[in-house]
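Q: My labmate handed me this sequence with no annotations at all. I'd like to see what the chain might look like in three dimensions before we decide whether it's worth expressing. Could you predict it?
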Amino acid sequence: SYPWYNNLVIYYNSYNGEMLRGETDGELTRAELREYLGRDDLLLVPHDTNFLSSGADFNAMELEDMTPLIQVYSRGKHLERYDREFLIDSDCEGGHWQDALLKGAKMGCIAATDAHDGNGGIILPELGFPKMYPAITGVWAKENTLPAIFEALKARRCYGFMGGRITLDFRINGHYMGEEITADERSVYFRIEADGEIDTVTVVKNCRDYIILKGKNEQLFFDYRKENETDFYYIRVRLKDGRLAWSSPIWVNGGNE
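A: Here is what I predict for the chain of 257 residues:
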């Protein structure tokens, strides 16, 4: 069983009043988890997986048990990778987004407040940095409707950011974030619009910082270097006020040696 999956946020395509419970309350067996992951009307997203209390270890999990998205940031906490700047509770190897990606998971990211007080996406300056920023998810949906937004999340055409407003467009060979493609040469493009000044944009390739650009809000470049049978890329944006944003990855099969 995966007891840490009581840290799942469950999104429904249509609300039907159903509350998912495992045979043992607070836990899901592998069979139960796989049943829920296979449903078209559900989207399961874990959070706080890097906490010691969660007991999450993506390195020990089967790929079939990985969720399509992870909550990469929640008010004051981010779990892309080890980062003492954002240490709130505890930080454990195996529970980060990058741990799942290196394992081979096709996992995108969102950000959400995990709020229990009804504040939602409200910035609370009295909490100080970084807790003042609540976390918001952006999606590239075909239209502004709940079904279209749900479809975009299912397809991983989404990104997470700490708060305020950021538009993050990241593509490879014209394909949106969240896609898996086959290509020899990779035309990597991003465009960013933010309510603050951009400090750096980092292109992350196979979970390492591959290219860092200072103050860029738009860039196109070509990458011909195949490193694995499947390489993956995502974008990390840092604004000068310290806020971060992350795109979901794009996975690229094939390419030149």
